[in-house]
Every structure is written in C-alpha cells, then in structure tokens.
Amino acid sequence: xxxxxxxxxxxxxxxxxxxxxxxxxxxxxxxxxxxxxxxxxxxxxxxxxxxxxxxxxxxxxxxxxxxxxxxxxxxxxxxxxxxxxxxxxxxxxxxxxxxxxxxxxxxxxxxxxxxxxxxxxxxxxxxxxxxxxxxxxxxxxxxxxxxxxxxxxxxxxxxxxxxxxxxxxxxxxxxxxxxxxxxxxxxxxxxxxxxxxxxxxxxxxxxxxxxxxxxxxxxxxxxxxxxxxxxxxxxxxxxxxxxxxxxxxxxxxxxxxxxx
Length: 260
Hints:
The chain is mostly helical. It has one domain. The protein has helices at 3-19, 21-47, 51-83, 87-91, 97-127, 137-163, 170-178, 193-199, 203-217, 222-253, 256-259.
C-alpha cells in the first residue's frame, strides 16, 4: 500500500470540496443545520423540566451524525467519481483499489472531524451541551461508530459494483433505514420484542445505550462497548470479504467497465 497514492486521493477530494458547493454543504452547512434544529428541540424539552432527556436527544444526534456522515460519505464520494467519469482515470494510474478505498475512508474521517468539531462548538455555545462531558468514553463511542460506518460504506460500494450505479442513491438512504432500530433517541427496551432482536444485531445501538448511561450516571458500561466492538469486527470482516468477492467477480465478468 502506497501512502503517497492514498494522499493523492485525499488531496483530490479536498480541492473538490473547496470548489463544489454540494460537497461544501455536506461538510459544514448540513451538520450545522442539524444541530440547530435539534438544539431548539432540546431547549424546548429542557423547558419541560427534563434536562436529562434534552441531553439524550442532543447527544444522540451528535453521535448519529458521525455514523451517518461517514457511512454515506464513503459511498457518495465513490458515486461522485462515477458521475464525473473520473473513476476510470483513477484506475488507469498505478493506484490499487485498496489504496483508493483507503483514501475514501481517510477523507471521510477528516471531514467528520471538521463537522463534529463545529457541531460540538455550536452545541456548547448555544445549547449549553458539552459533548466533552462524555470524557474519554466519547473516543470509544466514536471508534465503534466509525468502524460500523466504514463497514457500511464498503458494503455500499460493493453493491454499486455488483448492481451498477443506478442503485447509487442507496448510499445515503440505507443509514436512515436502520435508524429506528439503532436506539438513537430512546432505549432498546421501548421497542417491540422483534425489533429488539434486530437492534441487538446493530453495533451502534449499544453505543447509544452506553452514551445515555454515561450522561445519566457517569457510568461507562464496558459490556456494551465490547459487544459493539465484537459485532463491528464481524461486520467489517464481512463487508471487506463481500467487497473483495464482488470486485473479483466484476473484473472476471467484465462488468466493471459498465459501472465506470
């Protein structure tokens, strides 16, 4: 794996983000609008004498954006290269698909750092919510969110390679399909039994359960963390295996040309 080639992918998306309005909107404007919207909602909830619930809601949306932005950004950046007819130019260089994929993951990590920092600043300044109050546990929560989002992004790219760019919109639709089961704004226990079984298979549901415990009591539930991490390791392994199998299949059958 060549770091200079990976850096080239990162630089390309950096310059594109400076020049293309839709990419700039995705990094800065969209997260800010999300925090402002939920900030006003939590202010209203605080007025109902439920400050803990308000913290649950705002903490939930801040952590959810880590997963949603990274998970969709990996797939969307891949789709941008297809729509711009640039993927064939990239693959014509010495860069390998693994290096290209690593570059997409790296640029998504950088972008979420910028977005999350801005959201945290706005939440602190206007809504008196200190995301840093989660302490070191915030890093562990973010780690599990990022791993699952990466798995999701790799899976999305594999789907596009397998079925063509016509299913590209799934890259930003799929995350919201799992949100009801991810326990972002409410505990798993409020879900019907069948939905609870689904939630127990989603790593990030344990992240949000752990976040609420830290906010409420200051206690970090290691069992929730390790359960989430183990599930994440399973999913990242499966997504990489599925991607590798799909890539070999499209290369063998000559379908990659139809995608790019």
